[in-house]
Design brief:
Number of helices of chain A: 6
Helix content of chain A: 40-55%
Order of helices and strands of chain A: HHHHEEEEHEH
Oligomer: homodimer
Largest interface: A-B, 32 and 32 residues
Number of domains of chain A: 2
CATH topology of the largest domain in chain A: Arc Repressor Mutant, subunit A
Distance between the termini of chain A: 45 Å
DNA sequence: TTTATATTGAGATTGATTCTCAATTACAAT
DNA sequence: ATTGTAATTGAGAATCAATCTCAATATAAA
């Protein structure tokens, strides 16, 4: 089960005529090292901190590939720069984002999934991905 | 009915101890001159083209104010820069986006609004904006 | 080994957005 | 009207994430 994502990534790359280099492997491993959001700059430093290396350019390039093959998802921009999260092995979820403290609350809703299906059916639309995010103030922050 | 948005904006500004200057009025008027998405750079040139003036700085500052008072909504970033649409006088809607032909289907769902409220209540979250978009294939395009 | 192709990284570049701050404006109080 | 006070403006500088450039390097096949 472990390293399943590496297998998926390698196969995806091969199909494209690309290779799983040590930089790409380092990025992949860091991305999957724990669950949660991250941004490219994060990755850059964490990879260094672990004694591996990858340039910013490679990080941006590799994230693009990871999006393409569906191992990573782009989260809506919270402030000014992009955030990502890996999705392989995790149930899809949506987000509540606090505008004050930046906290991201994950949301799992069966009802929402059902509703989505209904809405698509009505329009005869085949959905391949969706984004649902609410911005506002979390419990703590709304109490001023 | 016309210029209703100006009344709303002025009252909002007054409450903040701010004024409806001619620059702010020019921006407001341009924003409401037609329906559809726009970006700050657009505004900058269109305002000039109409013989009015406002600096980029003022445009960005004023858009912030318009977001604050709810007259304008930020649309999810399509490419790299922010897009907006004015919402006063228009029902909120979500989008289905066809990946093949680019068609954007507007979506109005009472159920979705209700569900949103429920979800926020559960987390004690005060929602100020949301994004819900599904990407996939529209009726025509899914038939290959 | 030779050849061809993919990949990398340092640094430059881009471009949207934000910031700075001196000059200007609006308006209330005298 | 004049003065004082606070809000506002704009030109250009600064910021900073993201992208691009391109020579050097790695990889794999012939």
């Amino acid at each position: 089960m472990k390293q399943m994502e590496e297998k998926i990534f390698r196969e995806f790359l091969e199909k494209k005529g690309c290779k799983l280099t040590k930089e790409r492997a380092a990025i992949l491993s860091e991305v999957f090292s724990k669950h949660g959001h991250f941004d490219p700059e994060d990755l850059f430093f964490k990879i260094r901190a672990k004694g591996m290396k990858a340039s910013r350019a490679s990080i941006y390039r590799t994230l693009q590939l990871l999006l393409e093959c569906g191992l990573v998802e782009q989260v809506e921009r919270v402030d000014k720069h992009a955030h990502y999260e890996h999705i392989f092995g995790h149930k899809h979820h949506d987000h509540l984002i606090c505008l004050k403290c930046g906290k991201v609350i994950q949301l799992f809703s069966e009802k929402l999934s059902k509703l989505q299906e209904q809405l698509c059916k009505k329009e005869n639309f085949r959905c391949v991905s969706h984004t649902f995010e609410m911005k506002g103030y979390c419990e703590k922050c709304r109490a001023r």
